[in-house]
C-alpha cells in the first residue's frame, strides 16, 4: 500500500465545540494589531477555531461511523453550554491560545462523557487532562517571542457570552503537507435538552 492509499484510509479526528461567528469576530478584532505585528506567526484560520474535547488521532475511516450514533444521543441529552472567550496564554512559548470562561463545570462534564463514550466504542486515545482553550497561532522556531507577546496583549480580553449549540466530530486530514491543516465537520449534532430540566 502506498502513502496515498494509507492517507486515504485514515482520518485524523477530534470532537469539539465551535464558537459562533459573532464571538470569533470579536476576538479577531482584538487580534488585528497582533496580525500586523507578528505576520510570520502561523495564524489559524478563524473558521477553524474550536475547543477540543477529545483528540482521537489517526483513525481508520471505517471506524469513524461507529462514533456517530452515540455522539448524537449524547448531544441530545445535553443542554447548550454558556461559554465565553477570555484572556490568552501560550504553551511552551510557541502555541498561542485564548482561554474559556463560563460553565466550565459543564464543559468538563461533557468532555468526560465524550471521552468515556469514545472508549466504550473501543477506540483508545491519549486522554490528556482537559485545558479548555482555543488555539490561535503557532510561533516559528526562529521567531519565538510572538506567542508570549500576543498572550500578554490578550490578558484583558473578555468576549461576550455565547451558547455552544452543537457537538462537532471533525476531520483534520485535509491539506496535509507543508501548508496549513484544514478542518471540516464529519458530522455535528445539536444539544437539545432543556437547560432547566433537572
Question: What would you say about this model in short?
Answer:
With 198 residues, the protein is α+β, with helices and mostly antiparallel strands. Helices cover 31% and strands 33% of the residues.
Q: Which strand order do you get reading across the main beta sheet? A: 2-6-5-4-7
N-C termini distance: 53 Å
Tally of helical segments: 5
Choose one word for the global shape.
globular
What structural class results from the helix and strand content? alpha+beta
Q: What is the averaged pLDDT score?
A: 89
> What is the strand content?
25-35%
**Are there runs of 5+ residues with pLDDT below 50, and where?**
1-6
How many β-strand runs?
9
> Radius of gyration, Cα only, in angstroms?
17 Å
What's the SSE pattern? HEHEEHEEHEHEEE
- Estimated helix fraction: 25-40%
Q: Could you give a short account of the major beta sheet?
A: 5 strands, antiparallel
Amino acid at each position: 500500500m502506498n502513502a496515498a492509499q494509507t492517507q486515504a484510509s485514515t482520518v485524523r479526528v477530534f470532537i469539539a465545540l465551535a464558537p459562533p461567528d459573532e464571538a470569533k469576530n470579536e476576538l479577531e478584532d482584538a487580534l488585528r494589531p497582533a496580525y500586523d505585528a507578528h505576520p510570520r506567526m502561523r495564524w489559524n484560520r478563524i473558521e477553524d477555531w474550536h475547543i477540543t474535547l477529545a483528540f482521537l488521532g489517526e483513525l481508520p475511516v471505517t471506524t469513524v461511523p461507529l462514533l456517530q450514533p452515540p455522539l448524537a444521543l449524547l448531544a441530545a441529552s445535553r443542554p447548550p453550554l454558556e461559554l465565553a472567550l477570555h484572556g490568552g496564554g501560550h504553551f511552551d512559548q510557541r502555541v498561542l491560545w485564548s482561554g474559556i470562561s463560563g460553565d466550565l463545570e459543564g464543559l468538563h462534564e461533557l468532555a468526560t462523557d465524550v471521552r468515556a463514550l469514545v472508549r466504550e466504542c473501543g477506540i483508545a486515545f491519549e486522554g490528556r487532562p482537559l485545558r479548555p482553550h482555543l488555539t490561535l497561532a503557532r510561533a516559528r522556531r526562529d521567531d519565538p517571542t510572538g506567542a508570549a507577546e500576543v498572550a500578554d496583549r490578550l490578558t484583558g480580553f473578555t468576549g461576550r457570552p455565547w451558547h455552544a449549540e452543537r457537538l462537532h466530530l471533525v476531520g483534520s486530514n485535509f491539506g496535509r503537507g507543508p501548508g496549513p491543516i484544514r478542518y471540516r465537520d464529519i458530522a455535528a449534532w445539536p444539544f437539545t435538552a432543556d437547560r432547566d430540566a433537572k
